[in-house]
Write a structure and sequence with these properties.
single chain, mainly alpha, globular
């Protein structure tokens, strides 16, 4: 994997935070102008929020971050200190926020771990394992949601054009199929038979019009073998910790919106389950967004899923949801990136 410092730091440029901010706010302004149910008074509705659920939303925000920090420390078998784990998660989330969801930030994450004194082969193994577990959550959870509530987790045609409704179905199933395919290929390559994966890549690039990619395929295959070797001999305790922490992380993320919505609307337990399921479907759709951190895409689809539950509170909840789940990592990354660069490039050399 090419860990070109200049290219990585160009990706981690704090100035890039304005691109997703403008995209997200642009969609909010578009909805403000074009939705007859939205007015200046919509923003005043935040004063009606119940404090209890809002405090719970703040709590799960911090719990999710703590879960991420704990998981990366566990995956690296405590090679990372708590301070290093904190920086890794902040900058990893920052990289994910300023790059398209469909692209991801694998190289950036490997670079960050490498600068935290983890060898590239190990770092790649840890990053790929994290991605596999995150994607596996959706691969398993999405079908369960559909089986338990197919008629309630997708927006109906009320207030939504049939074209948009059908497009959501297609987007979901295309996105789910791509995620599932990628996850199973990566799981096979990393955890089952990396050498066969390398052989297949080389065979595929033996075709005349793909021969230019053969060297890259050889490199990717070799990297996968090295990454796989880092995960050999992990005990049952390791896999249980990673699995449970992954479920905890994503559950915390989704419960945050549940609590925000509960602060404005009287939501029953059954409705909470439906809202939780809707978020899984929405997130699968967002994963193929071409925009940085799904900015704009998330804000656009949010009212399609939740306007029926929130009514007049849809816009303000949409804004609060993104303020809690997305924008903090943009600004925290911009704040902590210079400190981290000074820490790994200058302070360690001086020491």
């Amino acid at each position: 994997m090419n860990l070109d410092t200049k290219k990585i730091l160009k990706t981690l440029n704090p100035r890039k935070v304005w691109v997703p901010v403008v995209l997200g706010m642009g969609i909010v302004i578009f909805m403000f102008i074009n939705d007859p149910d939205v007015s200046a008074d919509s923003f005043k509705l935040i004063l009606n929020a119940s404090s209890g659920p809002v405090l719970l939303a703040i709590l799960v925000f911090f719990l999710r971050f703590a879960g991420y920090t704990y998981r990366i420390k566990s995956i690296t078998k405590d090679e990372l200190s708590w301070t290093s784990s904190f920086y890794v998660i902040i900058l990893w989330e920052f990289a994910s926020a300023i790059t398209p969801s469909v692209v991801g930030g694998t190289a950036v994450a490997v670079f960050i771990l490498w600068k935290e004194n983890i060898m590239p082969g190990k770092a790649l193994g840890y990053v790929l394992l994290t991605a596999i577990f995150d994607n596996m959550f959706f691969v398993i959870a999405a079908p369960l949601v559909l089986l338990l509530g197919m008629n309630t987790v997708f927006p109906d045609a009320v207030g939504t054009s049939e074209f948009v409704e059908s497009s959501l179905y297609y987007l979901f199933f295309i996105s789910y199929g791509l995620i599932a395919l990628y996850t199973f290929i990566m799981a096979f390559a990393l955890l089952i038979n990396p050498r066969l994966f390398k052989w297949i890549l080389i065979r595929i690039t033996s075709v005349r019009f793909l021969r230019k990619l053969r060297y890259a395929a050889y490199e990717r295959g070799t990297e996968m073998i090295l990454a796989s070797e880092q995960l050999k001999g992990m005990g049952k305790k390791f896999w249980v910790k990673v699995s449970l922490s992954t479920v905890f992380i994503w559950s915390s993320r989704y419960l945050l919106l549940n609590f925000l919505m509960d602060s404005f609307a009287n939501i029953t337990f059954k409705e909470h389950l439906v809202i939780f399921g809707k978020q899984i479907i929405l997130w699968v759709v967002m994963l193929i967004s071409p925009t940085p951190g799904s900015s704009g895409t998330a804000e656009y689809f949010f009212p399609l899923f939740f306007k029926e539950d929130l009514g007049a509170y849809t816009l303000i909840t949409n804004i609060l949801w993104r303020l809690f789940t997305y924008y903090p990592y943009l600004f925290l990354g911009a704040i902590f990136l210079p400190r981290w660069l000074r820490r790994v490039f200058f302070l360690r050399k001086e020491a």
